[in-house]
TrEMBL record:
GO MF, any single term: phosphatase activity
PROSITE patterns, per the entry: PG_MUTASE
Catalytic residues as annotated in Swiss-Prot or TrEMBL: 13 (tele-phosphohistidine intermediate), 93 (proton donor/acceptor)
Signal peptide positions on this chain: none
PANTHER family named among the record's database cross-references: ADENOSYLCOBALAMIN_ALPHA-RIBAZOLE PHOSPHATASE, BROAD-SPECIFICITY PHOSPHATASE YOR283W-RELATED
Pfam families the record matches: His_Phos_1
An example Gene Ontology CC term for this record: cytoplasm
Upper classification of the organism: Bacteria, Pseudomonadati, Pseudomonadota, Gammaproteobacteria, Pseudomonadales
Protein name per Swiss-Prot or TrEMBL: Histidine phosphatase family protein
Length: 205
């Protein structure tokens, strides 16, 4: 009998000021703002209700500060030592290269030809001095192979989109355009996902 694949409890980092300004963050190390810290606390409360034994799970985070802050707030809400989790470079946000720090209107104005190519094939488009969603998929495939148990994971919108494609939940070509909310938990299994929010019924498939 084939062992059941581990369940991922995936969290997008809380809000930052650059989220509010609609700036591409990528590998820029931007901290949470006050709302982002509140979102992380709310997710911790939700996981405390959802998980009967959270200490039995693995905890992995992107090494970027906005993800680590989120993880440490979540673990504190679970009455677990905040800093006892692993930071995994494979969960770092996709590198958007020269687009980082810019708003979408600035990107379209500054790089019109590249922006047109991105709109045509966003999954395979490689950002100048950065990477593509397709390249991120490769490192996440290795991350998935290393999973041994159910895992709470804090990452970024681009990484979560790519994970959902890797797990067969959405087509690759749709992944870069999928809205990934903050302040919610994505339960992710092969070909199955469910969004959980404290005050709402689950949604997914």
């Amino acid at each position: 009998m084939t062992a059941q694949a581990p369940t991922l409890y995936v969290i997008r980092h809380g809000e930052t000021d650059w989220n509010v300004e609609s700036r591409m963050q990528g590998r820029r190390d931007i901290p949470l703002n006050a709302k982002g810290r509140e979102q992380a606390q709310a997710v911790g409360v939700l996981l405390d209700w959802l998980l009967p034994s959270p200490g039995a799970l693995d905890f992995a985070s992107s090494p970027l500060i906005r993800a680590r802050e989120t993880m440490e707030i979540v673990r504190a809400q679970l009455t677990l030592p905040p800093e006892q989790y692993r930071a995994d470079e494979r969960l770092a946000e996709i590198s958007f290269g020269t687009w980082e720090g810019l708003r979408w209107d600035e990107i379209e104005g500054r790089y019109p030809e590249a922006f047109t190519h991105w709109r045509k094939d966003a999954f395979n488009f490689q950002f100048e001095e950065g990477e593509s969603y397709a390249q991120a998929l490769l490192r996440l495939a290795y991350f998935r192979e290393d999973l041994k148990q159910d895992t709470v994971l804090v990452a970024h919108a681009g990484i979560i989109r790519t994970l959902m494609a890797l797990y067969g939940c959405i087509p690759y070509e749709q992944a870069p355009h999928l809205l990934i909310p903050q302040g919610q938990v994505l339960m992710l299994r092969p070909e199955s996902f469910c969004w959980l929010k404290g005050s709402q019924a689950p949604s997914g498939n």
